[in-house]
Amino acid sequence: MRTEGDQRIVVFATVADRKMVRWVKVGGEKLRGLEWADDDNVMITTSITDSLYGFSGERFMLRVYSLSRNEVRSLPGNVLQIDDTNHILNAVFGDVMVGHIDGHTVVFVSGVDLTLGAQLYRCDLTTRSTKVFRAYDESSASWLVDAHGELAAEQDYDAQTQRWSIRIFHGGSSREAVSGHAALDVPQVLGFGPTPDTLLVQSVENGARSWKLLSTDDGKLSAPMADDAVVDEAMHDPLTLRLIGGVNIVDMREYVFLDPLLESRWKSVVKAFDSATE
């Protein structure tokens, strides 16, 4: 990323000789994240702090840049103005989920329709089509989609009653698996667990973060995972979406893997780079 005045520019270059192949301006907003959705599409997350209807806060926006098309697309859509026909804010919230379904790269992102509330949008980067995947009338809802593009879980929190709940989906039906009450530190679904029939749930117990696995079969929570298994960020396989490790953030990002073989290979990579920079 380069900066020219107030403009931020994302530059794409070859690894071997660092020759620039593409570049795209992302404006004067704060650049919050860059992530590849596939070999052609890069997700660019930016944010601004502004006031909407008297409420000031940080608003996140998502754009996807296609290297082959050399064009930028806003998700869930190019709706920048609110009028009689457009009610979708050009902002996103929650985690962005990426799936590779039947040869298509699909992005699931939560947005807000001012007339309908929170919506989960299905954005197909291959066909360039976007549609509402899940509608909900509460802005506090969040969702989890599996590797097949099916809804796997829904999390909800009612600020007035301070009640939280996690609902699990199987086929066309769903059921509430766990629930409770919390004024602060509401339990959060971080994604799938290490197996396809588990979800990773984070909560705060006695002032410390705790990770538990929620079974999608019987809806029961496991005992807390070992303290050394709880890291700052969970890391999931981009294809299977299963938990494979995590990231500890101290002075820099330190990656850890659940699989001993992957952990050993990663340490070899880190050692090789450390030796090359000495």
Give a count of the beta strands, DSSP E runs of length 2 or more.
21
* Helix content estimate: under 10%
**Secondary-structure element sequence?**
EEEEEEEEEEEEEEEEEEEEEH
Give the strand line-up of the largest sheet.
Answer: 4-5-6-7
Oligomer: single chain
**What class would the helix/strand composition place it in?**
mainly beta
Poorly predicted spans: none
For the largest beta-sheet, the strand count, sense and barrel status come to:
4 strands, antiparallel
Helical segment count:
1
Determine the N-to-C terminus distance. 25 Å
Query: Which percent band covers the strand fraction?
Result: over 45%
Radius of gyration: 20 Å
Shape: globular
Mean pLDDT: 85
Overview of this protein structure:
The chain has 1 helix and 21 strands. The chain has 278 residues and is mostly beta strands. The protein has a 4-stranded antiparallel sheet with strand order 4-5-6-7, with no helix packed on it. A 4-stranded antiparallel sheet has the order 8-9-10-11, with no helix packed on it. The protein is globular and about 50 Å long. The relative contact order is 0.07.
Short description:
Helix content is 6%, strand content 55%.
Please supply descriptive tags for the structure shown above:
four-stranded antiparallel sheet; globular; mainly beta; 278 residues; 21 strands
Topology (SSEs and partners):
Layout: E1 2-4, E2 7-13, E3 20-27, E4 30-36, E5 41-52, E6 55-66, E7 71-75, E8 93-101, E9 104-113, E10 117-124, E11 129-135, E12 142-145, E13 151-158, E14 163-170, E15 173-181, E16 188-192, E17 198-205, E18 208-215, E19 233-236, E20 243-249, E21 253-257, H1 260-276
Antiparallel strand pairs: 1-2, 2-3, 4-5, 5-6, 6-7, 8-9, 9-10, 10-11, 12-13, 13-14, 14-15, 16-17, 17-18, 19-20, 20-21
